[in-house]
Amino acid sequence: MYVGWHMKTDLITVSPDTPVLKAREILDTKKISHLPVTDGKARLLGIVTDRDLKAAWASPASTLSVYELTYVLQKLKVESIMTKDVLTATPDMTIERAARIIHDNRIGALPVVKDDKVVGIITATDLMEVLLTALGMSDDSGRISMIVKDRIGILAEVGRTMQEAGINIRSVITFPLRGYADLWQLIMRVNMNVHEKAVQALEAKGFKVITHYVEDITPFLPN
């Protein structure tokens, strides 16, 4: 999966001389949190966020009267509060790399740039949607979890068990089990109408299946 496949391309941008009050209106009206700031040729100059606008509202100017504050904000331009050193993505960047950048830098979005022009934006919300889709999350699917040893062939073995049972796997993901160097969690989702059949097929092959939260995972550790 790549950023270019999931980014929003119906961009709303502003110019550096856009009044801060106008930027606030755009964010509220369009129900968005980030506004790329561009020149007349779609080149990225900065980004202004709802956080930047809240900071402007909470500046020392807030000690002024309502009328004085309104006057000051009417004169204030986006270029005065925008972030100029902007982290960006490219359309060919992987989704996981974009997610890492957003997570590590505690930001909410990445403008997407190609050939020095802004072509889209990808947000933390977009990445969460991709994750949920990849996990196969839906009302008509059921979750199956197992703790397995980190060994070659384990995915093939689970897949073969489902194949023999005539069950299609909608999604599968593995990640390390915290506190155990050689054990992984294997989580998959299947159609709800075959969920119980899938559990039975796996247990018949010796897998210890977890279908709900348990505080003590010891009984589910592989032998």
UniProtKB/TrEMBL annotation:
Keyword Transcription regulation set for record: no
Record key words, sorted: CBS domain
Positions of the ACT domain: 143-222
Domain CBS: 7-63, 82-141
Residue ranges of the TM segments: none
Keyword Ribosomal protein found: no
InterPro entries recorded: ACT-like_dom_sf, ACT_dom, CBS_dom, CBS_dom_sf, Diverse_CBS-Domain
Protein name listed in UniProt: Acetoin utilization protein AcuB
Organism: Desulfacinum infernum DSM 9756
